[in-house]
Amino acid sequence: MSVIASMVVGEDGSTSKDSQSAGVSSPADRRTFLARRRNVDCIIVGGNTARNEPYNRTPVPLVVLSHSLVNPVIGNHLAHMWNASPAEAVERATRQFGENILIEGGYSMISELLDENLLDGLELSVTPETGGEGVIDWKSLVARFDSYSITEEDGTLFYHAIKKQK
After folding, report:
1. N or C: at which end does the chain have fewer Cβ atoms within 10 angstroms?
2. Residue of 28, 60, 29 lying closest to 45 (CA atoms)
3. At residue 54, what are phi and psi to the nearest 5 degrees?
4. Is the dihedral of CA 18, 19, 24, 25 positive or negative?
5. Is the domain defined by 1-40+115-166 classed in CATH 3.40.50.620?
């Protein structure tokens, strides 16, 4: 099983501008993000992420975790609404869709999965953007993994962090 989280932040830790991650993204991040999600069996997001980001089309099944069960991604025939914890969703999605799960949820979802030792890795893009909302300490997040490597493309740093085998 491979459960990888994907996140983009500005260098100041901003996770969004005007409530969308596109405000802190870069062309290099966007290319990498789109390529990554084509190689997984399922994408898991939280309800707030689904309401604020464009998830009307995904290349693979999309699981939206929400207590409301009001579908925020109407038109995406691959969307599934689940009232489940992130840990329950990973286990269920693995059974239902396959072993390669991509977490595109926010910091709290990623932290919860880390606390439960359910994340194998983190793909973090750090762009030159600043001045957004939802500031997190992305360096502390990366430090929760056992090792990482960094690559750079057009001013965007890509952190590839991994956990040791469970």
Report:
1. C
2. 60
3. -80, 90
4. negative
5. no
